[in-house]
Amino acid sequence: MLALDRIIDAARAAPRAIVLPEGADPRIAAAARRAVREGIARPILLGPAAEVVAALGGDARGIAVEDPATSPRLQAYAEALHLLRHDKGMDLAAAHRRMREPLAFAAMMVRQGDADGTVGGAVATTAETVRAAIQIIGLAPEAKLVSSFFLMLLCEDHHVQKGAYVFADCGLVIDPDAAELADIARASAASFTAMTGERPKVAMLSFSTAGSARHARVDKVVEAVRIARAASPDLIIEGELQFDAAFVAAVGAAKAPGSAIRGDANVFVFPNLDAANIGYKIAQRIGGARAIGPVLQGLAKPANDLSRGCSEEDAFHMIALTCAQASARLAAGAAGEIRAAALPGAAGSAWSAAPAGLPPRAPLADPEARQPPA
C-alpha cells in the first residue's frame, strides 16, 4: 500500500481546503469527518445546511458548510461565470442559475482560489462532474487534452502480483485517436511516477501483440507508440500488447520476446473508453483490486470524480489524492504557472501535466459534447 501511504502522507503534510459539492450524501459526510480526524484536509461541504449537518450526525466540527443558493459569494461567482461564458451565449441570469448548482459552485470556488480542489460524482454523473470542471476551472496552460486514470492497488493475499498500477483512460476520452492516445500514455506515466516514485513502464493495450493481428485499431495503437516515443525518447513504452503479455512474465516472453516489457508493465493504456471502463471494473469487482479514481489530468486546478457506486473509503482516498495534487501545484506554481512537481519522495509529477512536443489540437473545444460514463 506504499503508493496510497505516500498520497496520504503528502496530504497530511499540508492539509488543503477541498470542496465537496454533494455534502448531504452520507458517504461524503463520513469521508469528510474522517479527513478531519486524520488531518489530511479542511473540507467544505455544499448543500442546505440542515441536510448537511444531519448527514454529519450533528457534528460539523472542523468542517465548513455552505449552501450555494444562499451563499454571499453567489452574486460574485455568477458575474465571474458570465464573464467566462458570455461568448457561449450565457447571460447573467443563466450564470446566476448555474451558480446555484453545487457542482458549478464548487468548481468556481476552486477557480477563484476559495478552495484548493474539488471532489464530486458520488451523486452526479461523470459527464456532469467533468463538464463543470472543464467549463469553469479550465485546462492547464499547456494542456491539449483532459484525460483520466485509475490508481489500481493490488494488495490482497489472493493477488499473484501486488503493487500499484495505473489504468487509463477509464472515464473521459471515448475514442482517442493515435495522438490523443499518446498524450494519455505520457500523462499517465508521469502521474504514476508522481504517486509511486517508480519508473513507469507503459503497455499500450490491444487485442493483438507484436503484429499477431492486422486491423486499423491495431494500427492506431502502434502509431500512438511511435508518437509517444518521438516526444518522450526516455519513456519505456511498448505496444501493441495484449494484457497477458504486459502483465504475466512467461506470456510476455513467449508472445513478445523482443519487448522491453515482459510482464512488468505498471501503466496500462487501453485503446478506448469501452475497454478501459470495463477493464477497471472487472479488476475491481471480480479481481478485488482497490480502484481510486477517476483522477483527472490536464486541468488548471484539481478537480476529481467519484463513481456513483463509491464507498466512504473511496471518497476519503480521493480527498487525500486531491489534497496531494493541490500541494504539488502550489509548490510548482508559485510564479503562477502550472509545472510538474513531486510529491514527497517522488521523482517527478504531472498532476496537470500537458505532454510537450505534440502538434496542437483542440479535442475539448466543445466539452459539452463529451458524455463519459459514471
UniProtKB/TrEMBL annotation:
EC number(s) recorded for this UniProt protein:
2.3.1.8
Q: Which InterPro entries match?
A: P_Ac_Bu_trans, P_AcTrfase, P_AcTrfase_dom1, P_AcTrfase_dom2, Phos_Acetyltrans/Butyryltrans, PTA_PTB
Q: Which family does it belong to?
A: Belongs to the phosphate acetyltransferase and butyryltransferase family.
Q: What is this protein called?
A: Phosphate acetyltransferase
List the PANTHER family.
PHOSPHATE ACETYLTRANSFERASE
| Cross-referenced SUPFAM superfamilies | Isocitrate/Isopropylmalate dehydrogenase-like
Pathway participation? Metabolic intermediate biosynthesis; acetyl-CoA biosynthesis; acetyl-CoA from acetate: step 2/2
Name of the encoding gene: pta
Q: Which organism is it from?
A: Xanthobacter tagetidis
Single GO term (MF): phosphate acetyltransferase activity
User: Does the entry feature the keyword Oxidoreductase, yes or no?
Assistant: no
User: What chemistry does it catalyse, as a reaction equation?
Assistant: acetyl-CoA + phosphate = acetyl phosphate + CoA
